[in-house]
């Protein structure tokens, strides 16, 4: 990277993952009974709700990774 350029720590390595993560976000929110704003603006949502969604997404992603790793080592 050149001078003045920075890479966001939230940049996706696989751009197609964005759609899958978005879908996961809506699934988790629905499971928790949290309504995601249709306009995409989260400024009026409670921090507790956005944190709950993020935390559950992280748990789900870790669970998926663990299952994939377990499958690789049992073959």
Automatic annotation (TrEMBL):
<comment type="function">
    <text>SASP are bound to spore DNA. They are double-stranded DNA-binding proteins that cause DNA to change to an a-like conformation. They protect the DNA backbone from chemical and enzymatic cleavage and are thus involved in dormant spore's high resistance to UV light.</text>
</comment>
<protein>
    <submittedName>
        <fullName>Small, acid-soluble spore protein, alpha/beta type</fullName>
    </submittedName>
</protein>
<dbReference type="Pfam" id="PF00269">
    <property type="entry name" value="SASP"/>
</dbReference>
<keyword id="KW-0238">DNA-binding</keyword>
<dbReference type="InterPro" id="IPR038300">
    <property type="entry name" value="SASP_sf_alpha/beta"/>
</dbReference>
<dbReference type="InterPro" id="IPR018126">
    <property type="entry name" value="SASP_alpha/beta-type_CS"/>
</dbReference>
<dbReference type="InterPro" id="IPR001448">
    <property type="entry name" value="SASP_alpha/beta-type"/>
</dbReference>
<dbReference type="GO" id="GO:0006265">
    <property type="term" value="P:DNA topological change"/>
</dbReference>
<comment type="similarity">
    <text>Belongs to the alpha/beta-type SASP family.</text>
</comment>
<dbReference type="InterPro" id="IPR050847">
    <property type="entry name" value="SASP_DNA-binding"/>
</dbReference>
<dbReference type="GO" id="GO:0003690">
    <property type="term" value="F:double-stranded DNA binding"/>
</dbReference>
């Amino acid at each position: 990277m050149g001078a003045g350029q920075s890479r966001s720590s939230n940049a996706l390595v696989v751009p197609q993952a964005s759609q899958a993560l978005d879908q996961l976000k809506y699934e988790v929110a629905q499971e928790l009974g949290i309504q995601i704003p249709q306009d995409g603006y989260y400024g009026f949502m409670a921090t507790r709700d956005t944190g709950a969604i993020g935390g559950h997404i992280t748990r789900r992603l870790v669970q998926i990774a663990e299952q994939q790793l377990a499958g690789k080592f049992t073959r």
